[in-house]
Protein backbone atom coordinates (compact mmCIF):
# COMPACT_ATOMS: atom_id res chain seq x y z
CA UNK A 1 0.00 0.00 0.00
CA UNK A 2 1.13 3.48 -0.67
CA UNK A 3 1.52 6.15 2.00
CA UNK A 4 -1.61 7.94 0.78
CA UNK A 5 -3.74 4.80 1.36
CA UNK A 6 -2.46 4.48 4.92
CA UNK A 7 -3.31 8.05 5.73
CA UNK A 8 -6.43 8.45 7.93
CA UNK A 9 -9.25 10.81 7.08
CA UNK A 10 -8.89 14.15 8.81
CA UNK A 11 -10.40 14.05 12.29
CA UNK A 12 -13.29 16.37 12.99
CA UNK A 13 -12.51 18.59 15.89
CA UNK A 14 -14.36 18.34 19.15
CA UNK A 15 -15.57 21.90 18.72
CA UNK A 16 -17.57 20.88 15.63
CA UNK A 17 -19.46 18.24 17.60
CA UNK A 18 -20.20 20.76 20.35
CA UNK A 19 -21.34 23.26 17.76
CA UNK A 20 -23.73 20.71 16.20
CA UNK A 21 -25.11 19.73 19.62
CA UNK A 22 -25.63 23.40 20.50
CA UNK A 23 -27.36 24.03 17.19
CA UNK A 24 -29.68 21.06 17.74
CA UNK A 25 -30.49 22.29 21.26
CA UNK A 26 -31.33 25.77 19.96
CA UNK A 27 -33.57 24.33 17.23
CA UNK A 28 -35.43 22.21 19.77
CA UNK A 29 -35.83 25.25 22.01
CA UNK A 30 -37.32 27.32 19.18
CA UNK A 31 -39.71 24.51 18.18
CA UNK A 32 -40.73 24.03 21.83
CA UNK A 33 -41.42 27.74 22.24
CA UNK A 34 -43.51 27.81 19.07
CA UNK A 35 -45.57 24.78 20.14
CA UNK A 36 -46.00 26.24 23.63
CA UNK A 37 -47.19 29.57 22.22
CA UNK A 38 -49.76 27.83 20.00
CA UNK A 39 -50.99 25.74 22.93
CA UNK A 40 -51.15 28.75 25.25
CA UNK A 41 -52.76 31.23 22.91
CA UNK A 42 -54.74 28.85 20.70
CA UNK A 43 -53.22 29.56 17.31
CA UNK A 44 -55.31 31.20 14.62
CA UNK A 45 -58.75 32.40 15.66
CA UNK A 46 -60.54 29.70 13.66
CA UNK A 47 -58.44 26.96 15.30
CA UNK A 48 -59.48 27.79 18.86
CA UNK A 49 -61.75 25.52 20.81
CA UNK A 50 -65.25 26.82 21.39
CA UNK A 51 -65.97 28.22 24.82
CA UNK A 52 -67.24 25.67 27.33
CA UNK A 53 -70.99 25.39 27.74
CA UNK A 54 -72.73 27.47 30.39
CA UNK A 55 -73.42 24.39 32.52
CA UNK A 56 -69.75 23.33 32.34
CA UNK A 57 -68.64 26.86 33.24
CA UNK A 58 -71.03 27.06 36.19
CA UNK A 59 -69.85 23.69 37.47
CA UNK A 60 -66.12 24.26 37.03
CA UNK A 61 -66.21 27.66 38.70
CA UNK A 62 -67.69 26.17 41.89
CA UNK A 63 -65.41 25.64 44.88
CA UNK A 64 -64.16 22.06 45.23
CA UNK A 65 -66.56 21.12 48.06
CA UNK A 66 -69.56 22.32 46.06
CA UNK A 67 -68.43 20.44 42.94
CA UNK A 68 -68.16 17.29 45.03
CA UNK A 69 -71.69 17.83 46.37
CA UNK A 70 -73.08 18.30 42.85
CA UNK A 71 -71.27 15.14 41.68
CA UNK A 72 -72.60 13.11 44.59
CA UNK A 73 -76.14 14.30 43.85
CA UNK A 74 -75.73 13.16 40.24
CA UNK A 75 -74.36 9.76 41.24
CA UNK A 76 -77.72 9.02 42.82
CA UNK A 77 -79.19 8.70 39.32
CA UNK A 78 -80.81 5.31 38.77
CA UNK A 79 -78.67 2.67 37.07
CA UNK A 80 -81.44 2.34 34.47
CA UNK A 81 -80.61 5.81 33.10
CA UNK A 82 -77.02 4.76 32.47
CA UNK A 83 -78.16 1.58 30.77
CA UNK A 84 -80.65 3.57 28.66
CA UNK A 85 -77.83 5.80 27.39
CA UNK A 86 -75.70 2.78 26.50
CA UNK A 87 -78.64 1.11 24.77
CA UNK A 88 -79.25 4.32 22.81
CA UNK A 89 -75.64 4.35 21.64
CA UNK A 90 -75.88 0.72 20.54
CA UNK A 91 -79.17 1.44 18.74
CA UNK A 92 -77.65 4.40 16.92
CA UNK A 93 -74.65 2.33 15.85
CA UNK A 94 -77.02 -0.34 14.51
CA UNK A 95 -79.04 2.30 12.65
CA UNK A 96 -75.86 3.70 11.10
CA UNK A 97 -74.89 0.23 9.89
CA UNK A 98 -78.35 -0.48 8.49
CA UNK A 99 -78.78 -0.92 4.78
CA UNK A 100 -80.58 1.01 3.54
CA UNK A 101 -79.92 3.77 6.05
CA UNK A 102 -83.10 4.80 7.90
CA UNK A 103 -82.67 8.52 8.61
CA UNK A 104 -85.99 8.69 10.49
CA UNK A 105 -84.86 5.93 12.87
CA UNK A 106 -81.51 7.66 13.48
CA UNK A 107 -83.30 10.96 14.10
CA UNK A 108 -85.64 9.32 16.63
CA UNK A 109 -82.71 7.76 18.48
CA UNK A 110 -80.88 11.10 18.57
CA UNK A 111 -84.00 12.88 19.80
CA UNK A 112 -84.26 10.40 22.67
CA UNK A 113 -80.57 10.87 23.52
CA UNK A 114 -81.06 14.66 23.55
CA UNK A 115 -84.09 14.31 25.81
CA UNK A 116 -82.12 12.10 28.21
CA UNK A 117 -79.26 14.62 28.21
CA UNK A 118 -81.72 17.41 28.99
CA UNK A 119 -83.00 15.42 31.99
CA UNK A 120 -79.41 14.99 33.19
CA UNK A 121 -78.63 18.68 32.64
CA UNK A 122 -81.74 19.66 34.63
CA UNK A 123 -80.50 17.50 37.51
CA UNK A 124 -77.10 19.23 37.35
CA UNK A 125 -78.71 22.66 37.40
CA UNK A 126 -80.96 21.76 40.34
CA UNK A 127 -77.97 20.52 42.34
CA UNK A 128 -76.03 23.63 41.30
CA UNK A 129 -78.87 25.96 42.31
CA UNK A 130 -79.07 24.26 45.70
CA UNK A 131 -75.35 24.92 46.29
CA UNK A 132 -75.45 28.52 45.03
CA UNK A 133 -78.55 29.28 47.12
CA UNK A 134 -76.62 28.24 50.23
CA UNK A 135 -73.83 30.78 49.52
CA UNK A 136 -73.76 34.12 51.28
CA UNK A 137 -73.48 37.36 49.31
CA UNK A 138 -69.68 37.49 49.43
CA UNK A 139 -69.32 33.86 48.31
CA UNK A 140 -71.75 34.41 45.44
CA UNK A 141 -69.88 37.55 44.40
CA UNK A 142 -66.58 35.65 44.30
CA UNK A 143 -68.25 32.83 42.45
CA UNK A 144 -69.67 35.26 39.87
CA UNK A 145 -66.16 36.60 39.26
CA UNK A 146 -64.82 33.05 38.74
CA UNK A 147 -67.67 32.31 36.30
CA UNK A 148 -66.88 35.44 34.27
CA UNK A 149 -63.15 34.75 34.31
CA UNK A 150 -63.66 31.13 33.34
CA UNK A 151 -65.94 32.03 30.44
CA UNK A 152 -63.58 34.77 29.28
CA UNK A 153 -60.34 32.81 29.44
CA UNK A 154 -61.56 29.31 28.62
CA UNK A 155 -61.13 25.86 29.99
CA UNK A 156 -57.52 25.76 31.17
CA UNK A 157 -56.72 29.33 32.08
CA UNK A 158 -59.91 30.28 33.92
CA UNK A 159 -59.41 27.90 36.80
CA UNK A 160 -59.07 29.08 40.33
CA UNK A 161 -56.29 26.71 41.32
CA UNK A 162 -56.21 27.84 44.92
CA UNK A 163 -59.12 25.62 45.87
CA UNK A 164 -58.82 22.81 43.36
CA UNK A 165 -57.57 19.28 43.62
CA UNK A 166 -59.29 17.77 40.59
UniProtKB/TrEMBL annotation:
It comes from Sedimentitalea nanhaiensis. This is Heavy-metal resistance. InterPro entries: Metal_resist. It holds the Pfam family Metal_resist. Keywords: Membrane, Transmembrane, Transmembrane helix. The chain crosses the membrane at residues 15-39. The lineage of its organism: Bacteria, Pseudomonadati, Pseudomonadota, Alphaproteobacteria, Rhodobacterales.
Amino acid sequence: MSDSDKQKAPRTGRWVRWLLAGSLAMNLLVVGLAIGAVMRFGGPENARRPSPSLVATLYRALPREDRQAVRSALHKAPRAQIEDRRAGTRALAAALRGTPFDADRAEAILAEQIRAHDVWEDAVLKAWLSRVSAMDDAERGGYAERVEEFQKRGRRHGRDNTNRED
